[in-house]
Known about the structure:
- It is a single chain.
- This protein is of the alpha/beta class.
- It has a 6-stranded antiparallel beta sheet with strand order 4-3-6-1-2-5, with no helix packed on it.
- Strand 11 (about 425-430), helix 11 and strand 12 (about 450-455) form a beta-alpha-beta unit.
- The chain is about 45% helix and about 15% strand.
- The longest helix has 30 residues, at about 195-225.
- It has helices at about 25-45, 55-80, 85, 90-120, 135-155, 165-190, 195-225, 340-355, 375-385, 410-415, 430-445, and strands at about 230-235, 240-245, 260-265, 275-280, 290-295, 310-320, 330-335, 360-365, 385-390, 400-405, 425-430, 450-455.
Amino acid sequence: MTVGGSVWPRAAETVRRREPRPSNLRGTVWIVTYLLFILAPLFALLLGSHPPARSFWTEFSVAIGYSGLAMMALQFGLTARFRYVTEPWGEDVIYHFHRQISLVAVALVVAHPVILFIARPELLVLLNSFTAPWRARFAALSTYALLALVATAVWRTKLRLSYETWHLMHLVLAVAAIAAGIAHMVGWGFYLADPWKRALWIALTFVSLGLLVYVRIVKPLFLLRRPYRISEVRKERGDTWTLEMQPEGHAGLRFRPGQFGWLTVWGSPFKISAHPFSFSSSAAAADGRLAMSIRKLGDFTNQIDGVPVGRRVYIDGPYGAFTMGNPADLHVLVAGGVGITPMISMLRTLADEGDKRPVILLYGSKSWEEITFREELEALEARLNLAVVHVLENAPEGWPGERGFITAAVFKRHLPPGYAKHEYFICGPGVMMDAIENALGDELKVPISKYHSERYSFV
Ligand SMILES: Cc1cc2nc3c(=O)[nH]c(=O)nc-3n(C[C@H](O)[C@H](O)[C@H](O)COP(=O)(O)OP(=O)(O)OC[C@H]3O[C@@H](n4cnc5c(N)ncnc54)[C@H](O)[C@@H]3O)c2cc1C
């Protein structure tokens, strides 16, 4: 076992090429499609018959209202977990984009009435929902729902909303906002006099709601037919439990090491109760067996040791782009705490496949006793071309290895020079990941394309 010192793995003996990650081309095609969907409603307004033009600010406010609503409707597509769409970036990037672009969309939708009221103060009477026509009431409903959507998403923890309650509210508010927004537009009908334009917007609404039906009904139906059984619940070091799962009546899913799945343990896949976990088992298991290793942290994970063997569970996956795919002279795995789970899957897979590519694991843990998979990592060092460097927050007396946190200095002590040539995988607590990304980017000048991060928080 390596605890400190500059022990580099041997140069590559056999560097097998894994299944490549999805190409940049696919990502570009999706970006263009996304932009087209957002802009298509605006272009459609320019076709067919036109009402007489109004003041610049009125027209401008209407245009941004249309764009904002189209962006909102497309949020259902972003979060529908279509593997083919999310693969080029990874789920965390998609959710991050979803969060950021939602703020832009809401800002556009809210700017629509604000600009109108400033340009035409006589319209302020429409704010009185008791006297205003229905089309204005729908506009108000849509705007209030959007504001509530943003407030509950941004301040979820401050508002002490459990993830499940928040998720349900998020869905209800999103559907209300889109439906009321479209009702407002169709009701006003200024630009939608042509029936085909009305049909276009109504179709957009149905596509959005259809995506919701797909995620909440069609997909769970599919998962119901592909259950797994818990075959073992095993305690690991560091307050972590491993669930071993066997596919029941099907061949099981295939994943690339580093990917994750959404696990439903209590109840059916129709409940909003799935939690994301990386697969910790080898991806080379022939019989479809899977494992997830879960650290106790909150409502759901605290009950993980109580999951009975034999229980039927459901797994939606695989997802994620946190996978070894690019050739590199050295793979550097950087794990903090339970962030070791995707790494152990990578290492177990390399061992099963007899892959001797050089790998260094820099692994931060609270203490020597809490190093999850400690003994197995020692065994893997003997089987693989692997060096493990433990970094302990609370190191015992006389500890010869690294102490504190993983910093640029730790990288410099343990990695061979030519940092920009190595491929890095980072997973751990958010603060640790921020610090490591800064160290790699700012101090070691590693280009962003050479490091991959898996963040354990989407929301
Ligand atoms: C891609 C990915 C892979 C992960 N892999 C692992 C792993 O291998 N091992 C491990 O121990 N943990 C992993 N996690 C973290 C794990 O999902 C959370 O710790 C767990 O969902 C917390 O749920 P809870 O009810 O116990 O805690 P809570 O206290 O309810 O939640 C803690 C935080 O976890 C997040 N969270 C809670 N429920 C969900 C949910 N249903 N969906 C998404 N996020 C949620 C929220 O940000 C919440 O604030 C992973 C997370 C992600 C995003």
